[in-house]
Amino acid sequence: MSKIRRIGLIVEDISDYESIRILIKRITNKDKLKFKKSIAHGCGKIKRKASGWAVDLHRRGCNMLILVHDLDRNILLKLREDLENELSSSPLEYNFVCIPIEEIEAWFLSDPEGIKTTFSLKRKPKVKGYPETISSPKEKLEDYVYSCSEKSKRYINTKHNSLLSEKLSLTKMKSKCPSFNALHVFVSAHTY
Amino acid sequence: MIKLKEVEIVNYRSCFKTKLELHDNLTTLIGINGVGKSNIMNSLQLLKQCLKSRRHYRDDSVDLQNTRLDLRIQLEDSIVILRSDIYYETDERNFDYVNFARIQFRYDGGNPRKWTKIHLGFYDYIRRPSENNRLIKKKYQTKRARTSFQILQLISNISYYSATQFADPTRCPISIELEDFRLSRRYRGNRFHEIFIFDLYRTFILNQKTFELFLNTVNQNGIQLIDDFNFNVHKIPSSSYKVKSGGQIEKIEKHKKIIIPSVVVDGLTLSPNQLSEGTFKSLALAFYILIDDSKLLLIEEPEVCVHHGLLDSIIELIKSQSRRKQIIISTHSDYVLDKLSPENIILVNKNKSKGTKAKKLTKAMSINDFQALKEYLGKSGNLGEYWIESGFEDE
């Protein structure tokens, strides 16, 4: 198995890029890992441009590609099949499709204690059930931050997702979110 | 929650007869320059102006410009049709001043000829909620009176933000002067920079928690525009004299307050007029999105002067606040459109004979075209890109 030189990330937006980059650095415990990005600003463009971007990321020196696409209202198996097809001709050595269910914010809801510390909230959010079963996790997280800060703080995903990715417990995310666990397993299986 | 469902504007600038259906949370007006997006926004502001008008209809009122606005409003327990006939003048700065307005409503599905005029007493209640409160509540306990009250609550809480209002931060005062917690006369009027500083100060004094929310959103805990915002207050003695009968002179002691705002950016303490235009505008926009207790917030071109990284956060703020209040924005930015869904979009266009026309994107496109758009968004690209490259309308 070759050593990973540089990781290419295909993501929907810049906040996803920042979050995934930080999480991978934490999983691998390698702070100096190099990344290149292709940002779609929405999910539709990912499908159209994934194969082209894969070629581009390969040219830019990446030998591992991780494509992140929120599940949103899609059907998991069908979406995975479509995205894997898009990457079937990828020139990169290692390719992985990561589908957060329903979106990346669900992962963050695995660690209410961490959310409380990150935002210095007055109380801990009471998150019920498994995070990946929560509908609209972004809105849910926003409501938790607003109410648990006694209406003095507003969660803005574009700024706060990277902060949460740095602070929250990977163990909790891994145990409560199968989609994060899959990413963890894939990333951990390589040498950097 | 009160929701404005539908608006019909008759005879307002390019809006000869313009009807639009609004989304419950966020509605976005798009269209080329000059089609009447701002006219739609301005016509809605006329409604708020109606509350300031206390004149009665006179024969010479017919010389004024006359607009009619019909609104379909979802209240907590019913749907009402609001009809407002507004007589107004426009000054040299293009601001409208309402001279006279007649506002009446009827219940949807009820007798179409039975209109209830909204009683002027309610205007006072909205203006000065602390006075007459109990009296008015006692006097008007019918369903129609409660409806009038809810309608006026909506109208009095319409707010407007435009990037052009906050252009050129050097026009922002480095201090403001207050008399009895009101802006001194020289600052009154449509001077948005001063009013923004005053609104900030008022929130700082009267509602610490809300000010904290604003600060936490724009400082390093949030979108990182600034580090801190402070006010220094200086009391200045100011006295006047009153001559009493018999020739005695009475000295009246007063105090004026000089409020000096300061912004901390990268450790430097600056006056607001030293901020860049984009930072100043974004501060004002974030403030009015977050703090404003309006029920209907109108925002024109939030993208002006804002870097796309910051614009991402501004759009997220708008989207998140639209869960709490109804927001209408207008935009020319495909980048903004990329962040929205087709259901939020209204296409505005104009022709010479019919004036401004507005149609929901979901209705402007044929079923087949809309399906094609949905598939494109799912598999190929983004909404803004589609707007630029393919367009939404039949040629």
Strand content of chain A: 5-15%
What's the number of domains of chain A? 2
Termini gap of chain B? 39 Å
Mean pLDDT rating of chain A: 95
The whole-number mean of residue pLDDT values of chain B reads 88
Low-confidence stretches of chain B: none
What would you call the shape of chain B?
globular
As for the CATH topology of the largest domain in chain A, it is Rossmann fold
Mind telling me the C-alpha Rg of chain B? 23 Å
Rg of chain A, Å, rounded: 17 Å
Q: Return the string of H and E elements of chain A.
A: EHEHEHEHHHHHH
Overall strand count of chain A? 4
What is the total number of structural domains of chain B? 2
Question: Would you kindly provide a written description of the structure presented here, covering whatever features stand out?
Answer:
The complex is a heterodimer of chains A (192) and B (395). Chain A is of the alpha/beta class and 192 residues long. Helices cover 49% and strands 11% of the residues of chain A. In chain A, strands 2-1-3-4 form a four-stranded parallel β-sheet, with helices on both faces. The radius of gyration of chain A is 17 Å and the shape is globular. Chain A starts with 5 loop residues before the first strand and ends with a helix. Chain B is an alpha+beta fold and 395 residues long. Chain B folds into two domains: 3-157 and 336-389, no CATH class; 170-291, no CATH class. Chain B is built from twelve helices and 17 strands. In chain B, the strands form three sheets. Chain B has a six-stranded antiparallel β-sheet, with helices on one face. In chain B, strands 8-14-15-3-16-17 form a six-stranded mixed β-sheet, with helices on both faces. In chain B, strands 9, 10, 11, 12 and 13 form a five-stranded antiparallel β-sheet that branches. Chain B is globular, with a radius of gyration of 23 Å. The model of chain B has no long low-confidence stretch (mean pLDDT 88). Classes of the chains: A alpha/beta (192), B alpha+beta (395).
